[in-house]
Amino acid sequence: MNTQPTQPSMELLKELALASGPPGMEDEVRSIVHREIGQLGTMQHDGLGSVVIESPGTGPRVVLDAHMDEVGFCVQSVDAEGRIYFVPLGGWWGHVLLAQRVDILSSGGTKIPGTIGCKPPHFLSPGERDKVLSLDKMYIDVAARGVDEVESWGIRVGDPIVPRGHFEEMASAGRYCCKAFDDRVGVGVLIESFKALVDGDLDLSCQPVAVAAVQEEVGCRGAQTAGELSRPEVAIILEGTPADDLPGMSQRQAVLGGGPQIRFMDPTALSNRKLVRWTEDIAEQEGIPVQVAVRRSGGTDAKPTHLHGSGVPTVVIGVPARSIHTHSSIIDGEDYALAIRLVTAMVQELDEATVAGFVDYNN
Asked: Which terminus of the chain is more exposed, N or C, with fewer CB under 10 A?
C-alpha cells in the first residue's frame, strides 16, 4: 500500500460522540463534517441534509457512507404540570431509559436539560416491579412549574430530544464509553480515511466520495436521497455495529478487540460476495484481524445503497460497540484504528478492473 493513516484523533471522536444529532436535526455533526473534510472536494447536500463530498479524480466512484444521526426522541405533548411526553426516533428498549438524562433541542434555540421520570421503589406495586414500562407511558421531567414555563423556554411539539452523554476512557486503557458510537465511530472512520486518501497526495485509480447521511435510525432515508448525488459504483458502509460478546451469546461475530466487522448480511442487505472475499484478502495482506458476521436482525445504509440504480456492490465495515442505542456504549480504540486502516487500504486497491469484477456474472 502507498500509505497508512496516522493514529486517529480521539479528541475528534469525542467531539463527534458528544455532538447532538437526532434524526432530522444532525446540524452539530454536519458542521464537524464540513470543517474536517468539506474542503477536500466538491461539497453538496441532498434535500434532507446529507453531506456529499466528491473528491477530485477519475475512475469508479467509491462511496464511503456513514450516518450522522443517533437514536433520540421527539416531543409529542406537554401536560398542564409541565411533563413532556415523547415518541422514539429509532429503536429503544424501555429498560435502558428510566432516570436517564436528556437534552431537549428547543425551538427557542437552547438545550433544555431533563431526566426521564420514574417512580421510586417505595411507590411501585409488585406487578409494576416485574414489567418493562412502555415508552408511551414515560415522560421527561424538566423541573418546570407548569406548562407556561415550558413554553417560555421555547419547547414546542416536534422538538427533538437527545441522550446526554459523557465521554470517558475506561480503566482498561484504550477502551471508551459514550453515547452515539452508533454511528459516530462510522463518521470518524469516514473523516479519517477520507483525509488520508484525498489529502495524502496518493495516485488513486478511483474517485472516493464521502457521504455523511441523515435519518438512518428512522429508515435509512438519507442514504437513499444522497445516492442521487453520490452515484455510487461501489460502496463501503461504515457503522458502529452491535457487539455480541455478552453473557449467553455463544456464536460471537463482533467481539471488542477482535478487529473490524465485515457484515456479510442482515435482513435488509446481502453484501456482494466477491467484494466481501476481496475485503478479507485486503485485511489479510495488511495484517488486520476482521470478524465476518451474518445477522438475523438489524440494518444499515447498505439497504438503499446497494439498490441504487441497477445495483451497487456494497459491503459494511463496522466497529463493534457494546450496548448501542443507550447512553453508555463501549468500543475498543484499536478496532476503530484498524477500521480506518482497512478502509484506506481497500480504496487504494480499487480500480476499474477490480470494480468490474465484482459485477461480472458471465461465469
From this structure: C
